[in-house]
Design a protein that fits this description.
InterPro entries: ADH-like_C, ADH-like_N, ER, GroES-like_sf, NAD(P)-bd_dom_sf, QOR-like
Distance between the termini: 15 Å
CATH topology of the largest domain: Quinone Oxidoreductase, Chain A, domain 1
Number of domains: 2
Protein name: Quinone oxidoreductase
CATH class of the largest domain: Alpha Beta
CATH superfamily of the largest domain: Medium-chain alcohol dehydrogenases, catalytic domain
Organism: Aureimonas fodinaquatilis
Strand content: 25-35%
Radius of gyration: 20 Å
Structural class: alpha/beta
Number of strands: 15
Pfam family, one: ADH_N
Mean pLDDT: 96
Largest sheet: 7 strands, mixed
GO cellular component, one term: cytosol
Order of helices and strands: EEEHEEEEHEHEHEHEEHEHHEHE
CATH architecture of the largest domain: Alpha-Beta Complex
Helix content: 25-40%
């Protein structure tokens, strides 16, 4: 018997209950991992509150973690007991021990500890595909990244600056703006006090951006489209303020034959080759020092309710992890 956070119905943070949890032996293709750290992400909120459909009820939330293998299931040949691993896109991370598909796990290299790994598997690999594959960012790129002081934002803006881009960020307070400026942004706009569209036009001298990365959603749409130059790309990869509704394709034509995409990490890492390449690229850029990971909030796992309250109230910056 282990302990886990269990959700028995759609609802608010009060639905996150720390309780005994029966965990089976690993089945074929599975690892049993004794967790050391677990990541906190907005997708956990979406599954708890019903924005995304939960796999079942009751369920254990959480999509990423890191720890040590304590058992392996039949057919697993690339992992063994005692090895350190991290994973993303696997259900049930909010637990002392978790069953993880071996297909979703990666070995942790020396120099990357479990807290860093748990903090970056989802957010860091998201930054990787956004900057390296959804739009290939380079020295000629002018980009806008909303929520630049958030978990993905602080990783992506450092990485984009390392790639040579001109990085414009938005954030919701002066404190968060200062944090974003210290982590790769050339310019940061406080969207609470400033019209970010007009600010982008001023910063770029009317040329606007090649790409806009938007995880905010409802509150920044359709204004994000007005920050794009002709043939620019709108990348909507989240909806922390609410879902974009009634997206009108004709608007893309009217605003300069724009492109739009709604990507997900799961599509970009659906093959073993892609998963390993993405993780390898992420660990390399962290190991080089080009991207520094700031774990700005840590919580005991049993305080998941408080963590969700902080995340939804936007009281967090950078990455947050649970210690198990």
């Amino acid at each position: 018997m282990t302990k886990a956070i269990v959700v028995d119905a759609i609802g608010g943070p009060e639905k996150l209950v720390w309780q005994d949890h029966e965990l089976a032996a690993p089945g074929p293709g599975q690892l049993r991992v004794r967790q050391k750290a677990v990541g906190l992400n907005f997708i956990d909120v979406y599954l708890r509150n019903g924005v995304y459909k939960a796999p079942r009820f009751p369920f254990v939330p959480g999509k990423e973690g890191a720890g040590t293998i304590v058992a392996v299931g039949e057919g697993v040949t690339s992992f063994k007991v005692g090895e350190r691993v991290a994973y993303a896109a696997a259900d049930g991370a909010y637990a002392e021990e978790a069953l993880v598909p071996a297909s979703q796990a990666v070995h942790l290299p020396d120099g990357i500890d479990e807290e860093i790994a748990a903090a970056v598997m989802l957010k860091g690999m998201t930054a990787e595909y956004l900057l390296r594959r959804t739009f290939k960012v380079g020295p000629d790129t002018v980009m806008l990244f909303h929520a630049a002081a958030g978990g993905v934002g602080l990783i992506a803006t450092q990485w984009a600056k390392h790639l040579g881009a001109t990085v414009i960020g938005t954030a919701g307070s002066d404190e968060k703006c200062a944090l974003a400026l210290a982590n790769g942004c050339d310019h940061v706009i406080n969207y609470q006090t400033t019209d970010f569209v007009e600010a982008v036009k001023e910063i770029t001298r009317g040329r606007k951006c090649d790409v806009v990365y938007d995880s905010v959603g409802q509150a920044t749409y359709p204004a994000s489209l007005d920050c794009l130059k002709r043939l620019g790309l709108f990348v909507s990869f989240g909806q922390s303020s609410g879902m974009i509704r009634n997206f009108d394709l004709a608007v893309l034509n009217q605003k300069g034959s724009l492109f739009a995409t709604r990507p997900s990490l799961f599509a970009y890492t659906s093959t073993r080759e892609d998963l390993e390449a993405t993780a390898r690229s992420l660990f390399k850029v962290i190991g080089s020092g080009a991207v520094k990971i700031q774990i700005n909030q840590t919580y005991p796992l049993q305080e998941a309710r408080r963590a969700h309250e902080d995340l939804e109230a936007r009281r967090t910056t950078g990455t947050s992890v649970f210690r198990v």
